[in-house]
């Protein structure tokens, strides 16, 4: 039982909430039973350390069994230790230290993808993580974070993916220009979701969305710059029929990804 909240080991785990520590170690923080279950089921080889309170492991017997099956040791910690390790105000019984595992942009496009989400200057961790989750749900082949977007391994991003980060390839650090160029070389059209664009229904009527597509989603407040919009093939907007001032970025991204998923499967 790890019971000293001030021990160097506990502090080293807690430091992974900071980007500098993640960059230095090449590791990131994982929190909660859902994330623990997903990494154990899909990428157990990435786990460096996995911690849990006795109460949590007793409650989630399926996670305990999955850890045994994967050959991963779970170390017991006290509630006080878990609170120090965790980035959340109310920890949910599990904390893990996991190797970062970005995929290269080159490998993503070499796999003949049909649907990709590209995040350009998306800064809000909740939005970024939710888009990864939506892309996973819609059956997208990959997600790409450009260098101007939030860190994929930010604890809030990881939590917002609810484990989808372990389900599909995610690349980081690329420039939008390079991504667009590689997408076209791989036979994908590049569509931008932006309020300046044409109605999504037009794209649907033209059967535009059935083609292999890389969707580009921009900054929450400003959208995409004019220079970014000039890079893409078409600019599409999700119409608002009610009285809402605007639509949340992750919601709009979910609509766009699912429209493509429906069209490609119809």
From TrEMBL:
<dbReference type="InterPro" id="IPR029064">
    <property type="entry name" value="Ribosomal_eL30-like_sf"/>
</dbReference>
<dbReference type="Pfam" id="PF08032">
    <property type="entry name" value="SpoU_sub_bind"/>
</dbReference>
<feature type="domain" description="RNA 2-O ribose methyltransferase substrate binding">
    <location>
        <begin position="29"/>
        <end position="104"/>
    </location>
</feature>
<comment type="similarity">
    <text>Belongs to the class IV-like SAM-binding methyltransferase superfamily. RNA methyltransferase TrmH family.</text>
</comment>
<dbReference type="GO" id="GO:0032259">
    <property type="term" value="P:methylation"/>
</dbReference>
<dbReference type="InterPro" id="IPR001537">
    <property type="entry name" value="SpoU_MeTrfase"/>
</dbReference>
<dbReference type="InterPro" id="IPR013123">
    <property type="entry name" value="SpoU_subst-bd"/>
</dbReference>
<keyword id="KW-0808">Transferase</keyword>
<dbReference type="InterPro" id="IPR029026">
    <property type="entry name" value="tRNA_m1G_MTases_N"/>
</dbReference>
<protein>
    <submittedName>
        <fullName>RNA methyltransferase</fullName>
    </submittedName>
</protein>
<dbReference type="GO" id="GO:0008168">
    <property type="term" value="F:methyltransferase activity"/>
</dbReference>
<dbReference type="Pfam" id="PF00588">
    <property type="entry name" value="SpoU_methylase"/>
</dbReference>
<dbReference type="InterPro" id="IPR051259">
    <property type="entry name" value="rRNA_Methyltransferase"/>
</dbReference>
<keyword id="KW-0489">Methyltransferase</keyword>
<dbReference type="InterPro" id="IPR029028">
    <property type="entry name" value="Alpha/beta_knot_MTases"/>
</dbReference>
